From TrEMBL, chain C:
Keywords: Lyase, Membrane, Transmembrane, Transmembrane helix. GO terms for cellular component: plasma membrane. It holds the Pfam family NADHdh. One of its GO terms (molecular function) is lyase activity. Its main location: membrane. It is found in: Membrane. This is Formate hydrogenlyase. InterPro entries: ComplexI_Subunit1, NADH_UbQ_OxRdtase_su1/FPO. The chain crosses the membrane at residues 65-88, 100-117, 129-153, 173-191, 230-248, 254-278, 290-309. PANTHER family: FORMATE HYDROGENLYASE SUBUNIT 4, FORMATE HYDROGENLYASE SUBUNIT 4-RELATED. It is a multi-pass membrane protein.
């Protein structure tokens, strides 16, 4: 408890410190985040504490990174205030204080986007959707107050408050069809990468936290979880798909956030609809682990884009360094859902829980988890290819190099943390540990269960150790290779003509052209985000309708105004007397 | 008394159908005189001399002075009229509106509040008629005449409901201040009301 | 425990040492069918030994990932051979390291590291092949995951050994979901191992998808990559044979483990016969048509999942 107060105090002072001196603000932020992480780890009571750890680590790493990142004078206070808002929202048990923290988190980010914007409407779109989400959450909280009569998070008896608030949180998380709230502010907003980090990784963490907290209070099982399953599944697919065809580094990462949030939403949906208690508990832990995996990896990748001089993957100019290469490869492998990182464990657990649910339901309702699981498997395939694209064209395929040490070191630390975290996830899966000493696995085995029998099992620690050992054994058996260096053959063309990232994903642009509305025009191949263009069309229709309506209604003719008066008089008389 | 009421209503219909300014204004004078006649009849029934004062004021100011001023401002040209087309349709719409608004309102509302006074329906008739006149015309004189009709309606309504001193004072106020000063100004400034582009939307 | 360790060793060594043989047999038989004098059955072994002795030429801008990546992928393949029923019909030492789905994710890990190691050479031909492989990755990985779950939903566990025992029951074997999953897995196997009609062997750039990943390697890393390719074909094919097509006949015990290697040989002859028919009579698909091939496989596997619960 003391740790929490200390953390909040330091975080509260950091905007003030940032106003005075930029660096001291970031140092204060880092210190506050470190205390926050300690608080989360020391008071580990249920899965929600994992959110504190994840959030604290995100803030810590990006604050330390910001110390070495040159930027505008107002960025420090805005950044620290946003983090303060998030900290308030995460640690309170009162509905209104949560909303206050939510707004304190959004508004400095809006200002930061507005300061750096490239197009006129990006900050406005961000704020518009942010306020939409706040309104929905407020409505849900009001309903909760009406039902329970108290202003703190208390157990509910109906699912309606959760439903309304869930839609609000889903808008913030960037679920279908609101994906635009994720990629537009980042891409056209041109925010610096530490702001992009907290926009993508941390704000969506707060939304997921709110959603999980409300879900823990609602009675389960409930049918609404199937809707969450559907929305989450399709968000995973479309997020990964749009990420794959984008060539702007930050847009790619923004869509990847949409994909991961969809997976987290699916996991919450499994929690809500699981027929057995064991499965629900497994799904809940999976949610927390997925949040941890996504936050850490996304932070690292966004901080990596901070080292790019332009944001395009087609002609990248990035500061290449061996340390950051290793770190980013580890982070990308976690985002692709590969063992033995945390992301791999989370992906495995999510797919297992979906198919366990299909097995336990064993009725026509199982269609929903099965179809969702298949769509998520497709999304995972896209995610792997997308992360490969990012890593290859940002790091491996280019040749500039530098000697900068500190920022790449941060990335390397994150990567190692994710790798080690994968083996350490059995700490979080405390009720699901298994062991099989007869077959050589005395510890470190996580089993997925929906009843007393395990469905499947995995041991990330062994996956980390064994291939490395075997590879080392093979190296010893066959000996080290004799190496001779030479140039690569490029059919006689100069070496700087390279295969671009645009060409990398062009196959999909053409093969799945119906989904992307691919258009081959004079200036090349163009794709659209269909949901954003739909929203844009609806918005334009509404604006033109309202203009027509106002010109028709208020038409500056005296006759019509007198008619309005007559009508009002009649209505008033009838209403008052009757 | 009923005959007076009916003739007031008839004059209102005549005004509705009139496009030429001079007969319009003169009929307004006639209508105000009829209202004064009603007031006299009420005096005869109740015996309070205040009603006579009201009648006198009505006849002098609203029956003679105001139309005279209006006619002066409008000019003495013969045959000046407002440009309207489709009188017949306006009249039919007027009748429809009259029946719907007045009788519905009356049967639903007024009978609950004041079940004994049948004369109120005439007052409401003239009131809504004045409003409709404003709504259906474009030119300033017609709209001012409509306003005058509404005033008459208020006076007739008030005869049975409001204390008489208040009625006299209100009537005088509406006449002198609102009507003479402003309407002279307006008629000088704008003969026709057209929609203003800046005011749209 | 010692028994399990010995059985595990037999399974793993059987996999590693015997896998290239099947590729050699398939090539020889293809030559016989085409009425030409084909290479010897042991040719893959000769190739591997030759490569192990050669020097390694590394592009000047490549890093250690290029040289040592293949060692890691080989290690992962060996780990997978512990985990799935490729020789022995019961769990052996270190089997519970991952379950069936974890096995699919490990295959994904291998392709990830292989791609990164290949792209480290900064060659444009490799990039071309990688982009083709990546553009089918979503369907291939999706099919791999869903087909591995196909039997899991019927049995209630993701343990491949239990699923294999379940499928040996004739009523379960002939159920619609099992048949659909079998067909779907076979179509996926053709893609994953680069057989016609998906990909043509050899280094001609028009047909390269998987072959391009080994384009720039040479010497010992290339030997390990090729060996890894043979092991992957063996692993996926054996899973298909042991869990889906012919889940019968496995013996237990240390002697049974030796017998099982011979049994696998017999089963593989059937698979090679099927592949022979496919490779000698079908032409290579155009690149965008591969999406249709994989989409059919994916849809079949999803149907098999749906039919197992309805």
């Amino acid at each position: 408890m003391v740790a929490l107060i200390v953390a909040l105090l330091i975080l509260g002072l950091s905007p003030v410190a940032a106003l005075i001196d930029r660096r001291s603000g970031y140092i204060a932020c880092s210190a506050g985040s470190a205390v926050f992480v300690y608080y989360g780890m020391a008071n580990y009571s249920n899965e929600l504490s994992l959110f504190y750890v994840a959030a604290g680590l995100v803030w810590l790493f990006s604050s330390v990174y910001s110390l070495y990142y040159d930027h505008h004078q107002w960025l420090g206070p805005l950044y620290s205030s946003s983090i303060l808002g998030m900290a308030i929202a995460l640690t309170t048990n009162n509905l209104l204080v949560f909303l206050a923290g939510y707004e304190i988190m959004t508004i400095p980010a809006y200002v930061a986007i507005g300061l750096y914007k490239k197009t006129g409407y990006s900050a406005f779109v961000f704020m518009g959707f942010g306020e939409l989400s706040t309104i929905l959450i407020l409505a849900g909280f009001l309903y909760s107050y009406v039902v329970t009569g108290s202003l703190s998070f208390s157990p509910l008896t109906t699912i309606t408050p959760f439903m309304i608030a869930a839609f609000g949180f889903m808008v913030k998380m960037g679920m279908l069809p609101f994906m635009v709230t994720e990629w537009l502010p980042i891409a056209h907003g041109n925010a610096p990468s530490n702001v992009s980090t907290i926009l993508s990784a941390s704000m969506t963490l707060v939304a997921v936290y709110g959603l999980t907290k409300m879900a823990l209070l609602t009675p389960r099982p409930d049918f609404f979880g199937f809707i969450l399953l559907g929305v989450g599944g399709f968000s995973v697919f479309f997020g990964a798909f749009y990420a794959y065809v984008s060539d702007h580094a930050k847009v790619l990462l923004g869509f990847s956030t949409v994909e991961n949030n969809g997976a987290i939403l699916t996991s919450i949906g499994v929690y809500l609809t699981a027929p057995t208690h064991t499965l629900a508990s497994f799904a809940l832990i999976t949610t927390a682990v997925y949040v941890l995996a996504h936050s850490l990896a996304k932070t690292g990748l966004f901080l990596d884009t901070g080292m790019m001089e332009n944001e395009s993957l087609i002609l990248p100019r990035i500061i290449k360094n061996r340390l950051s290469d290793v770190g980013c490869v580890l982070l990308a492998s976690s985002m692709s859902g590969l063992l033995p990182t945390v992301g791999g464990v989370a992906t495995w657990a999510l797919l297992e829980s979906l198919f366990m649910e299909a097995y336990t339901l064993h009725s026509a309702l199982s269609i929903i988890p099965i179809v969702t699981g298949s769509i998520i498997a497709m999304g995972e395939g896209f995610a792997t290819s997308t992360m490969l694209k990012f890593i290859i064209f940002a790091h491996i395929f280019n040749k500039r190099s530098s000697n900068e040490k500190t920022r790449p070191l941060i990335l390397l630390l994150l990567g190692l943390l994710i790798l080690a975290g994968g083996s350490a996830t059995y700490i979080f899966y405390r009720p699901f540990l298994a062991s099989n000493p007869a077959l050589g696995l005395p510890f470190g085995l996580i089993a997925s269960e929906f009843s007393s029998q395990p469905f499947g099992a995995i041991s990330p620690l062994y996956v980390l150790i064994l291939p490395s050992l075997i590879g080392a054994l093979v190296l010893a058996v066959f000996g080290k290779p004799r190496i001779r260096r030479s140039e690569v053959w490029n059919s006689g063309a100069p070496m700087n003509e390279a295969y671009t990232s645009f060409a990398y994903s062009n196959n999909i642009r053409l093969m799945l052209g119906k989904l992307l509305l691919t258009h081959i025009g004079r200036d090349g191949v163009k794709v659209v985000d269909v949901f954003w263009s739909l929203t844009h069309t609806v918005a334009k229709l509404f604006v033109s309708f309202s203009r027509h309506f106002s010109r028709t209604y208020m038409n500056s003719r005296l006759s019509w105004y007198v008619i309005y008066m007559i009508l009002a008089l009649i209505v008033f008389t009838v209403v008052v007397v009757a | 008394m009923g005959a007076v009421y009916i003739s007031i209503v008839a004059s209102a219909f005549y005004i509705q159908g009139q496009a030429y300014y001079k007969p319009l204004v003169k009929m307004t004078g006639v209508q105000s005189s009829l209202a004064a006649l009603v007031s006299l009849l009420v005096y005869l029934q109740s015996g309070s001399p205040d009603y006579v004062f009201l009648a006198v004021i009505l006849i002098t100011i609203r029956g003679i002075v105001t139309p005279y001023i209006l006619l002066r401002v409008l000019g003495e040209r013969y045959g000046e009229r407002e440009r309207i087309s489709g009188f017949a349709s306006l009249l039919i719409i007027d009748l429809a509106f009259f029946f719907i608004a007045v009788f519905v309102l009356y049967s639903l509302v007024i009978t609950r509040l004041f079940p004994r006074d049948f004369e109120l329906v005439f007052a409401f008739t003239i009131f809504f008629q004045g409003l409709y006149l404003i709504a259906s015309r474009n030119s300033t004189p017609s709209q001012i005449v409509g306003y005058l009709e509404e005033e008459n309606a208020i006076v007739i309504l008030g005869l049975s409901l409001i204390p008489i001193p208040l009625l006299i004072e209100a009537s005088v106020l509406l006449d002198v201040l609102g009507l003479v000063v402003i309407s002279a100004v307006i008629i000088y400034e704008k003969k026709v009301h057209t929609p203003l582009e800046e005011l749209r939307g | 425990m010692i028994d399990q360790m010995v059985e595990a060793l037999i399974q793993v060594l059987g996999t590693i040492l015997v896998a290239p043989l099947y590729s050699g047999i398939a090539e020889k038989l293809k030559g016989v069918v085409s009425l030409r004098r084909a290479q010897s059955v042991l040719q893959p072994y000769y190739d591997l030994f030759k490569l192990l002795k050669k020097e390694t030429v590394v592009p000047s801008s490549a890093s250690e990932l290029f040289v040592y990546g293949p060692y890691f992928t080989f290690g992962v393949y060996v780990l997978i051979s512990f985990v799935i029923p490729v020789v022995y019909p019961r769990p052996v030492f270190l089997t519970p390291t991952v379950d069936f789905l974890g096995g699919a994710l490990l295959f994904s890990l291998v392709s990830f590291v292989k791609v990164l190691s290949a792209m480290d050479s900064k060659s444009n031909y490799v990039a071309l092949g990688v982009s083709r492989a990546a553009s089918f990755g979503f369907l291939a990985e999706a099919t791999l995951i869903t087909v591995f779950f196909a039997v899991a939903i019927s049995t209630g566990t993701n343990n491949p050994y239990v699923e294999s025992a379940y499928a040996s029951n004739p009523s379960h074997y002939l159920a619609l979901d099992h048949l659909l999953a079998t067909v779907s897995f076979f179509m996926l196997w053709l893609f994953e191992t680069g057989k016609l009609p998906v990909e043509s062997q050899g280094l001609s750039e028009m047909g390269m998808i998987d072959d391009s990943l080994t384009y720039e390697h040479s010497g010992k890393p290339l030997a390990l990559l090729k060996w890894g390719g043979y092991i992957k074909a063996y692993l996926l094919g054996s899973v298909w044979l042991n869990v889906f097509l012919l889940p019968w006949g496995g013996q237990v015990g240390v002697l049974g483990a030796f017998f099982d290697i011979g049994l696998m040989f017999a089963k593989w002859m059937i698979l090679i016969a099927i592949v022979l028919v496919a490779e000698t009579s079908l032409a290579k698909l155009r690149l965008f048509k591969i999406q249709d091939h994989l989409a059919i496989a994916f849809v079949l596997s999803v149907f098999s999942l749906l039919f197992s619960v309805i």
